[in-house]
Amino acid sequence: MRRLYSCVLALAIGLSTTPAYAATSVTPRPAVQAQAPTGELPDRRTGNSKTSRNSNGTYTTTIASGPVNYRDRQGRWQPIDSTLAAAGNSGYAWSNRANAYSVSFKKALAQDYLKIDARGKSFDLSLNGAGAAAATVRGSRISYVRPFPGVDLLYDVGATGVKETLVLANPSVPDHYRFTLAIPAGAALKAVRASDGSWQFFLPPQDDPVFTLAVPSATDGAIAAGTVRYADSSRVPCSSVREMKVAGSRWPQLTIAPSTRS
């Protein structure tokens, strides 16, 4: 009996230093399913919609009346962001953050103060005879104050293009403004007058316009930022607006002539 007891004791000591998995019966637990992530699902984006997975397992798709996403160079949908931020272009201060086209602005009015990049080409805009007005930026709007006496120049960057507004303070301001659009050297740009009076610009062999200069319009009083107050009691169209649509995206025509009225 003494020898048997010693063997049993030695066996017990040996087991105490070894993990007891083989000696213990464990009931396997069911596999834990990973919870699906919530929030937007990038692979379900379209040009004008986004889809999100909710915490209760349902989905919500939001459809917009205009584009909210654009395709990047890899063909993936990415959110459009028209906010003006520090530009990466040399000589320019601000540009829109994310879109199929890029628009850049200089910090003061000068030659080629505005640059549009679309479909691998750059187009520059200058305002003839304008002073070196400094720019201020707020969100997706840039303002050049007093390039001419009594005149402010505004640009609103959007998902489909750029809207230009000339705000006229009184009837003594000029009634004609000339812009120069510079095209890339060697580009075979073709201009076509559309039935609505706008101009469409094509880069053959592409059959859709790289950009469109829409017909300008004039309003008396209310514009996007609110109501303009006149410097005197005279009544004139206080703002002239033009838009160009850039390769699926809009901005102004080259000559704006608001008429004075009483």
Write up this protein.
With 262 residues, the chain is mainly β. The protein folds into 2 domains: 37-75; 80-262, no CATH class. 6% of the residues lie in helices and 40% in strands. It contains 1 helix and 23 strands. It has one helix at residues 2-16, and strands spanning 39-40, 49-53, 59-63, 69-71, 77-79, 81-86, 94-98, 102-105, 114-118, 121-127, 135-138, 141-148, 151-157, 161-168, 177-182, 190-193, 199-202, 211-213, 217-219, 222-223, 226-227, 239-246, 255-256. Strands 11, 12, 13, 14, 16, 17, 18, 19 and 22 form a 9-stranded antiparallel beta sheet that branches. A 7-stranded antiparallel beta sheet has the order 6-7-8-9-10-15-23, with no helix packed on it. The longest helix has 15 residues, at 2-16. It is elongated and about 90 Å long.
